Amino acid sequence: MKTRHLLPLVAVGGALLLSSCGQTGPLPTFGKAITPEWITADFDGRPGDEFIATSNLQDVVFNARGEVIGWYVKSYAGTPYIKQRADGSYDFSALKDQKGIVNMVAGRKALAVQADGALDPAADAQITAPTGLTTDETANRQDAVFRYTQGGATVTKTVTLHPRNFKIDLKTEVTGGPDRVNILFPGLGKADNPRVQGLSQTGAQPATVQGSGTLVVENVRYAALQENPSQVAHALIILPQVTAGANAADPASQPDAAVNATLTGGAQSLISASVPASSNLEVYGGKNELIHLYQSGYTTLPGLFQPNFFGQISLYIVKLMEALYKVIGNWGLVLVVLTVLLRAIMWPLMQVQGRTTARMQVMQPRIKEIQEKYKDRKDADSQRAMQLEMAQLYRDYNFNPAGCFSTFIPFPVLIALWSTIRNFEFDSGFLWLPDLAIPDPFYLLALVYLVVNIGQLYVMTRKTPEMFRQQAFIYLIFLYFALTFPAGVTIYIILSTLIGIGQQILINKQVEKETATIGQKVEKAPTRPAAKSKPSKTIDAPKK
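^ that's the sequence the OP posted. Answer follows.
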């Protein structure tokens, strides 16, 4: 396959990979940041309303008992799956059809409370209308209180969601009933065999369920259901919180506060948490991805997540970002400084690659001459002669084809940086951008992205207009993906590309100066004319 055909395919494939388009279904609907809110509407078509907490990261549907019947984590932050019609009603068809959208509870109920002889999620109950359906975006909170009575026991659930992360605080109070109850956490959507494990307060490593078996872990530090880590994988993690009066330094010394977890594996995976009548749990329901878990404080829990090589780089990057934020205090400026720092670190490597590119451009006319010279001569001797001429050309221009491989050396850092910024949850906007974690709602960054990339392509192919025309259309394809990039990612790409253009212009001038005399014919200096000798005077011999 010719290079001019291979490059577009590689570019498109790279765009698909970076955007995870091939795994997450359709690209998102472009729009402004979603304002977190509670929506009260009929979601399931049955009598009574449901209560939907919507945000950039997820849409969580509660019934009147405070049980989660729909838990939709968004592959692309800011995707508005819920549409409001002109008459004020809501269209939930995108969530219900589930095309490319995963419902983590898969038709079951999470946060359901169960107790033998007293509380049954499948039985009728006397329900009180939920109260406190409030949203405080500044404090990163969406609150609600659900209450119902069943079998003489009253259950009160106070739920707090956090729109900028996947955490839910669940406080449960059962009065007039048993001392301990079970809270059910089913999952994970369409995953037929997630990893199911639990770590006890005194354990060093988690205990894992084998296959579709069942395992009881007493006094858990955490219990978790997890898919294999990726950008589209999910996790459900339960962490007991110390209740009032418990000893925070030693929760195990408070038997009544202990949380015991019965873990079930397989397609019907389930965590059944046995909790006191008054309990406080922290629930994580979202992406099984390093940056989100790190920001939630879970990467230090043994056995929960083991970063790979790229993950380790991501952790260094995110810690650097947090350190810069403490000094600068603005995430947009943090990204600017981070871009400059990383480009400065990678400058020597990019210098090698840039010089290789510049020399190749300078050599292009000579390469074309050699190729034209031998294009109709396919015999072995001619091909060998062409290779010898090309090798000599490389020597003349001090060109090393291996320099092209320097392009790939920064890739681990670039991939890790992409993943870090893409998944990092910022708590502020920048300039006209309401949220750096979602795409630019006005599409200005996407247009700037297109312009600077076309500019970079021109700088790199200025001596080969044909190559410029062949590759320029690629960026029209990239423009479509740029519309879906989080604004923070696009800012990094634009700034990095601008710095790269400036570096390449400097390199081009250096290389052109260095190679200016290569291949020029050196005229032989004219020989100095011999000085004209004076005519010798002839002296006749004397006559005898």
